[in-house]
Design brief:
By secondary structure, this protein is α+β, with helices and mostly antiparallel strands. It is built from four helices and five strands. Strand 2 and strand 3 form a beta hairpin.
Length: 144
């Protein structure tokens, strides 16, 4: 039974290393405690109980503390910060013709129309979405 518990320790550690989600590390500790119980000759039901108790106690005791220490505030990416900004059309945006360029914060971007409408040159637009190389825009209304 020791081999099974050692395999569980390794799998839990590898899973934690792969995800870094603070999910399986407590089960690795529980499995390690079960290895000790197995090495001391305790029956299988005691090994399972040790595994469960150690895992759950560590999970209950440390996860809330670690969650408090981890940043909980969502930090948007640079791309997300562009959404909602104003840009100026420098080449008519026409999805059907695959044309359109806008200038956002001094940078020239390829652009698509949000609703498929044609947006003429020099129109002020609002960025609705941003891909890796293309902005999706909508014309600015007078009251915006």
């Amino acid at each position: 039974m020791i081999i099974l518990w050692i395999i569980l320790v390794v799998v839990a550690v590898l899973l934690e290393a792969a995800t870094m989600a603070l999910v399986s590390i407590w089960f690795a500790a529980g499995a390690l405690a079960a290895v000790v119980a197995a090495a001391l000759g305790f029956p299988l039901w005691v090994q399972i109980a040790v595994f469960l108790i150690v895992s759950l106690v560590l999970l209950a005791a440390t996860r809330p503390l670690l969650k408090k220490l981890m940043p909980d505030k969502y930090i948007p990416t640079n791309g997300e910060l562009d959404i909602g900004k104003k840009a100026v059309v420098i080449e008519t945006v026409d999805n059907a013709k695959s044309t359109g360029r806008v200038k956002l914060d001094g940078v020239d971007w390829s652009a698509d129309s949000w609703d498929g409408s044609v947006i003429k040159k020099d129109t002020v637009v609002i960025v609705k979405a941003r891909g890796t190389t293309k902005l999706t825009v909508v014309p600015l209304k007078n009251n915006d």
